[in-house]
Amino acid sequence: MNSRLRDRVCVVTGAARGIGLAIAERFGQEGGRIACVDVSARRLEPAVEGLKSKGFDAKPYEVDVGKRDDVHALFARIESEFAAPVAVLVNNAVFARFEPLAQIEVETVDRMFAVGVHGLIWTTQAAAPQMERRGGGSIVNLSSVSAFNPAKDSIAYSALKAGVVGLSRASAIELSAKKIRVNVIAPGMIGTPASIAQFDEATIATRQAEMPAGRFGEPEEIAALAAFLASDDASYIQGAVITADGGWTIPAR
Ligand SMILES: NC(=O)c1ccc[n+]([C@@H]2O[C@H](COP(=O)([O-])OP(=O)(O)OC[C@H]3O[C@@H](n4cnc5c(N)ncnc54)[C@H](O)[C@@H]3O)[C@@H](O)[C@H]2O)c1
Questions:
Q1: Of 247, 238, 234, nearest in space to 30 by CA
Q2: Distance in angstroms (rounded) separating the CA atoms of residues 141 and 162
Q3: For FRET with 35, which of 23, 101, 146, 209 sits at 20 to 30 Å CA-CA?
Q4: pLDDT of residue 143
Q5: What's the CA gap between 178 and 180, in Å, rounded?
Q6: Which candidate in 27, 157, 216, 248 is catalytic?
Q7: Would the pLDDT of 169 be above 90?
Q8: CB atoms within 10 A of CB 244
Q9: pLDDT per residue over 48-92, tens digit each?
C-alpha cells in the first residue's frame, strides 16, 4: 500500500461502520491519521479500537454532525489533539429512511437533512479554515446514484443526495482559491450490513442481476476511490461527481 496520506489529519464522519469504517481503514493504510466521527458511541469505540489494533493513529469523536456548534467545537478539538490542522474531510454520515410519499413524516425529513445536508455545510465550514492554513485540502462527500436515478420509495433520500451534489459543486467553486478540492462519490448498491438488511434474498438476486457487474460493490471499493480523491493524485479533480456502481446506471438499450 502506498503512503499518499502520510501524516495528514483525515476526518471521516459516520466512521463507526460500513463505508465510513472502510474509508477510515484505507486512510490508515495510506499513512493518514484518522479522526473517526460518529453519533453512535456504542459502535464507534470498538471500531476505533479495531483500527488502533492494526497500528493506525485513530481517535474516536462522538458528535452529531447536524449540530453546528458541536461540529465547530469538534474541529477545534481535532486540531488540538492531533496537533495539526485537518487536511482531509470525508462526509459519509447518513440518516436514511425509504418510504412512499404519503408516509413521509416531518421528523424523518428534518433528521435526514440535518445529518446529510446541514451537517456537510457545518463540517465544511469548520474544516475550510484549517485546510487553508495548511495550504490546501480535500473534501470528499458521499452522495448516491439515487441523486440521478432514484429507486422506489426514495423521494426524501434522492432529494438529500441531490443536495449533496449541489452543495459540493458550489463549495468547490468557493474553495478552489484556497486550494481546497471538493468532490463527490455516488455509489450504487454497496454490500454493507445496513444496506443488505433492507432486502430479502430474492430482491438481492434481482438487483444483482440488473447490474452489469453482476454484484453489489464492496465498501473497500468505495474506500479506494475516496483515498484517491483525498490524495494529491487527484490534484486536478475539482467539483467532480464520480459514480461507482458496477455499471448499474448505464441506460439499457
Ligand atoms: N451502502 C450503500 O449501498 C450506499 C449506496 C449509495 C450511497 N451510500 C452512502 O454512503 C454513505 C455510507 O453508507 P453506509 O451504508 O456505510 O451507511 P451506514 O448507515 O452503515 O453508516 C452510517 C453511519 O453514520 C452514522 N451517523 C448517523 N447519523 C449521524 C450523525 N448525526 N452524526 C454522525 N454520524 C452519524 C451512523 O451511526 C453510522 O455509523 C452514506 O452517505 C450513504 O448515503 C451508501
A1: 234
A2: 12
A3: 146
A4: 99
A5: 5
A6: 157
A7: yes
A8: 17
A9: 999 999 999 999 999 999 999 999 999 999 999 999 999 999 999
Atom nearest to 146 CA in ligand 1: 6
32 vs 80: CA distance, rounded Å:
17
CB 185 within 8 A of CB 225: yes
Q: How many angstroms separate the CA atoms of 11 and 87, rounded?
A: 8
pLDDT per residue as tens digits for the range 98-147:
999 999 999 999 999 999 999 999 999 999 999 999 999 999 999 999 99
Q: What is the DSSP string of 81-123?
A: HHTS-EEEEEE-------B-GGG--HHHHHHHHIIIIIHHHHH
User: Ligand 1 pocket, 111 CB below 6 A?
Assistant: no
> Of 108, 119, 4, nearest to 64 (Cα)?
119
Q: Dig out the grid coordinates for 37 from the structure.
A: 466521527
Domains (ranges, CATH) in the chain? 9-244 (3.40.50.720)
Q: Is 120 in the pocket of ligand 1 (CB under 6 A)?
A: no
CA distance 34 to 86: 10
Q: Which of 12, 13, 17, 19, when mutated, tests ligand 1's pocket best, judged by the most ligand atoms within 8 Å of its CB?
A: 19
Least Cα distance to 50 among 77, 76, 25 occurs for: 25
In the numeric block, the cell 484517491 is attached to 228
- State the Cα–Cα distance between residues 84 and 191, nearest whole angstrom: 34
